[in-house]
Write a structure and sequence with these properties.
Blueprint: H1 2-28, E1 34-37, E2 42-49, E3 65-68, E4 82-84, H2 88-96, E5 117-125, E6 131-135, E7 140-142, E8 154-156, E9 161-162, E10 172-173, H3 174-178, E11 180-183, E12 193-195, E13 207-209, E14 220-226
Length: 228
C-alpha cells in the first residue's frame, strides 16, 4: 500500500511539474521579431519606445527616423521613436513576400525617393490587454508649435548595398550596417523606407515625439507596415 501511495504521489508531482514548466515556457516565450500576415497584408515588428536622450550625448536631437536598432548598433538611435532588434534586410524580405518590389532610396539635395507606398502604424498597449492602433504621424509633433505631423507618403525604397572592403567583392545590405529602418528625410540611403519629404524641408521641420499619446520609454509596442 505504501508503495502504491508513493507511486501516486510521484505521478502527481511529475504532472504538476510538467504543467508548471509548460506555463513558465509559455510566459517566457519571446514575441516574434517579425510577423507576416498575408491575409491582412501586414508586416509587424516587435519594438520598444526609444529613449530621447542617450548617456553619451549632451543634448536631445530632433527626430529624423521612425525606427532604428538600439544604440550603439543604430547610428540614429538618438533620434528615433522606436528601436527594434530584427535585421532590416529581413524586414525588406518580408515586404517582398507580400508581393511588394522596392524602389530606390534618395540621398541629399534634389533627390526624391521612389517605390511603392505603404502605411505605417504603431500598435500601443491599451486597456484590457487590447492594442490601440496609431498612425505613425500621430506619434510626431512639431517642436515649436506642438502640432501633430500631417499625413506623409511612406515609400518602400529598399536600401543600397555597400562594399565594406574595396579589396573584396562581398557586398552587404546598407541598412543592416546603419540600423536604420525608416528615415523621414533623405539624409541616408541606407534605410528600408523613406517619405516624400526632401532635404528642402529638413531645415524647416524639427520633430519631437508626441508624449501625449506614446507610452513610457522602454514599453513594448509593435510597428505595423500595411501594404495596400
Amino acid at each position: 500500500m505504501k508503495t502504491l501511495i508513493s507511486k501516486c504521489r510521484a505521478g502527481l508531482l511529475l504532472a504538476f511539474c510538467t504543467q508548471a514548466v509548460g506555463l513558465f515556457a509559455a510566459e517566457e516565450k519571446p514575441v516574434d521579431a517579425i510577423q507576416v500576415d498575408k491575409d491582412k497584408k501586414t508586416v509587424t515588428i516587435a519594438c520598444k519606445i526609444a529613449p530621447r536622450k542617450l548617456p553619451n550625448l549632451t543634448e536631445v536631437y530632433p527626430i529624423e527616423v521612425i525606427a532604428s536598432l538600439p544604440s550603439p548598433k543604430g547610428q540614429k538611435a538618438h533620434e528615433t521613436i522606436v528601436t527594434f532588434d530584427a535585421k532590416p534586410s529581413d524586414i525588406h524580405q518580408a515586404l517582398e513576400s507580400l508581393g511588394l518590389k522596392p524602389g530606390k532610396p534618395a540621398k541629399g539635395e534634389g533627390a526624391e525617393a521612389t517605390g511603392p507606398e505603404v502605411k505605417i502604424f504603431l500598435d500601443l498597449p491599451g486597456a484590457g490587454g487590447l492594442s490601440k492602433r496609431l498612425p505613425i504621424e500621430k506619434a510626431l509633433v512639431d517642436r515649436k508649435t506642438a502640432k501633430t505631423m500631417p499625413p506623409l507618403k511612406w515609400i518602400f525604397t529598399g536600401s543600397i548595398t555597400k562594399q565594406p572592403d574595396p579589396n573584396k567583392a562581398e557586398t552587404v545590405y546598407g541598412a543592416d550596417t546603419t540600423g536604420t529602418l525608416i528615415a523621414i528625410f533623405p539624409v541616408t540611403d541606407e534605410t528600408v523606407f523613406q517619405t516624400n519629404l526632401t532635404m528642402k524641408e529638413e531645415p524647416l521641420i524639427k520633430l519631437e515625439t508626441n508624449t501625449k499619446v506614446l507610452p513610457d520609454i522602454g514599453t513594448d509596442v509593435q510597428l505595423v507596415i500595411q501594404v495596400p
